[in-house]
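Board work, copied verbatim: Protein-tyrosine phosphatase
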Amino acid sequence: MSIEITDESLNCFPPGSLSKHQRHIPMGTPHNLRTLAGIRTQDGKTVAAGKLYRSDSVAQLSSESQKRLDTLQLKVVTDFRSSLEQKNTPHQWSVNDIDIVHRPIPVMGDNGRAEVMRVLQNVDSAEEVVRWLGELYRSMVIDFSYVYAEWLHSLLSDDSYPQLYHCTAGKDRTGVATALLLKLLGVTDILIMDDFLLSNELSAEYIEARTTGKVTFSWMPEGVNPDLLRPLLSVQKEFLQATFSHINEECGSFAHYARQCLDMTSKEISQLRKNLLVPE
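↓ predict structure ↓
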């Protein structure tokens, strides 16, 4: 399956579903936080409210952000960051009954910062960065399918909700996790792509601040070309297209991928839909 999308279809939300901006939970930090509630499936159901939230890192929060997140009454926080990312910025939750589950996806190796710097020092154009990122997505969906499989199987339990899942920026590893889940739930490719690209809108101020030099990364040397940095901080439709195209190449179809790589049976997919979907 290859996802095809047009500019006209990007805002194609069926009547009755929550708009993408209604799903956003504005908080400052994290900035890329939203609920999956209201996303509509092909058979007329929607993702239930109060179940799942996707986000950029929630490891270190202001007291105000902590209070606002506490209102979600989370039971589980799933962290897709690498072991080094987790070590550098550990969670500091004040609520003791939240189960923090580490499911590392070190797609750039454990030291992602060093890999990013290696790439930035060896490319001459943003197009090269985009191609490199596309390869990361292709690797992520196959090489780390076992991590996504573990996470998806955990969602079969009622004890997994309400849950927030995140990586660092909440767009790549978290974006793929969301795309796989929504595909299993029966959401159309257009709406899967729409949710994926929403990270660009929600991260716009963050991206602008870092590409204009208003805010800098402490670990990144000065003088990095902002044209090279921008693709690293955003998502493009080609990334998700590469993901699903690679699934086709390796497994023949998404259905085969779900069975072979995610180890999801038809019965388990039905249970997943039962846990997360409600009539519109």
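Residues 7-279 form a domain with the Protein-Tyrosine Phosphatase; Chain A fold (CATH 3.90.190.10).
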